[in-house]
């Protein structure tokens, strides 16, 4: 008997690949475990390759299964996106643009883009997702986001990248700290302080840039805390648990017991870039990128 691959096979395969457990996958799919096992076996026969390694203790993906999992995730997601875009187009809209961003991009770049989209392309729907640099890259590669705003020096070759905003850096100190705008001369004055930084995993470029600012001043900062949120960093500074160096634009929108001193005489800048997948077929992306790149502040 000959079989053909159907969409259900891919859904069944993904459930087992995610759970690595046939009973849990079957419960997730609301089918019987023997039925699920038959479907996976049928799929392997059609593809003429084993997708799972099974024994009494565990279920694991074969190398072919691991490759298929990443491809099927992309295909299933693309089908869902296509269905959503199709409905929007049928309703008279252009479609949807899915935007990822770091928190700092919400200070100026992302709000400006949303306003421009609303004014020039009101038929384009938008969705926003605040994610780390790496999470945005992975989501764009998997077709789960259309564009992202990141602080990265390089991205995979499948992606395009353009710097859209260059910012200065500022010190963040407790409000009553003895260093003020009047007596501040150089960051080396604070070499003995504890520093609070954005997590290296969250933004390695930012972390390395701040380290280089201190190293150029002749010291390596003692890092006491790390966070992925500006508000958390400012709260730690407010409670005198350390000081911080952040992109200057981050000072707006927060009312806390901290003060900011702009670092005037340094070469480093906080660069924000837009990234996108070069072969993205979403018809809205060209309009969005045009608006971002024409209003870039670099």
From TrEMBL:
Q: Does the keyword Cytoplasm apply?
A: no
**What's in the GO CC field?**
protein-DNA complex
InterPro entries annotated for this entry? LysR_HTH_N (IPR000847), LysR_subst-bd (IPR005119), WH-like_DNA-bd_sf (IPR036388), WH_DNA-bd_sf (IPR036390)
Keywords of the record:
DNA-binding, Transcription, Transcription regulation
Q: Which Gene3D superfamilies match?
A: Periplasmic binding protein-like II (3.40.190.10), Winged helix-like DNA-binding domain superfamily/Winged helix DNA-binding domain (1.10.10.10)
Q: Which SUPFAM superfamilies match?
A: Periplasmic binding protein-like II (SSF53850), Winged helix' DNA-binding domain (SSF46785)
Query: Example GO molecular function term?
Result: DNA-binding transcription factor activity
Ranges where the HTH lysR-type domain occurs: 5-62
A Pfam family it matches:
LysR_substrate
Task: Write down the superkingdom of origin.
Answer: Bacteria
Family membership, please give it: Belongs to the LysR transcriptional regulatory family.
Q: What is this protein called?
A: DNA-binding transcriptional regulator, LysR family
The organism encoding this protein is Cellulophaga tyrosinoxydans
Q: What is the lineage of its organism?
A: Bacteria, Pseudomonadati, Bacteroidota, Flavobacteriia, Flavobacteriales
């Amino acid at each position: 008997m000959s079989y053909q691959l159907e969409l259900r096979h891919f859904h069944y395969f993904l459930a087992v690949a995610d759970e690595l457990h046939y009973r849990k996958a079957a419960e997730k799919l609301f089918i019987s475990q023997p039925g699920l096992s038959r479907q996976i076996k049928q799929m392997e026969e059609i593809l003429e390759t084993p997708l799972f390694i099974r024994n009494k203790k565990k279920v694991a993906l074969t190398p072919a299964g691991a490759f298929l999992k990443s491809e099927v995730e992309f295909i299933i997601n693309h089908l869902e996106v296509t269905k959503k875009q199709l409905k929007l187009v049928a309703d008279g809209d252009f479609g949807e643009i899915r935007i990822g961003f770091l928190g700092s991009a919400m200070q100026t770049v992302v709000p400006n883009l949303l306003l421009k989209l609303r004014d020039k392309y009101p038929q384009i729907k938008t969705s926003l997702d605040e994610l780390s640099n790496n999470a945005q890259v992975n989501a764009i590669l998997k077709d789960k986001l259309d564009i992202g705003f990141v602080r990265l020096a390089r991205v995979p070759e499948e992606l395009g990248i353009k710097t859209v905003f260059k910012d200065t850096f500022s010190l963040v100190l407790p409000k009553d700290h003895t260093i003020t705008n009047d007596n501040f001369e150089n960051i080396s004055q604070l070499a003995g302080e504890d520093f609070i930084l954005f997590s290296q995993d969250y933004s390695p470029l930012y972390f390395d840039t701040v380290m280089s600012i201190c190293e150029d001043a002749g010291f390596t900062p003692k890092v006491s805390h790390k966070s992925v949120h500006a508000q958390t960093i400012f709260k730690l500074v407010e409670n005198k648990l350390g000081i911080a160096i952040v992109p200057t634009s981050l000072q707006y929108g927060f009312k806390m017991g901290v003060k900011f001193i702009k670092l005037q005489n340094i070469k480093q800048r906080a660069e924000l870039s837009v990234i996108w997948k070069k072969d993205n077929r979403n018809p809205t992306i060209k309009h969005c990128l045009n608006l971002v790149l024409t209003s870039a502040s670099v």
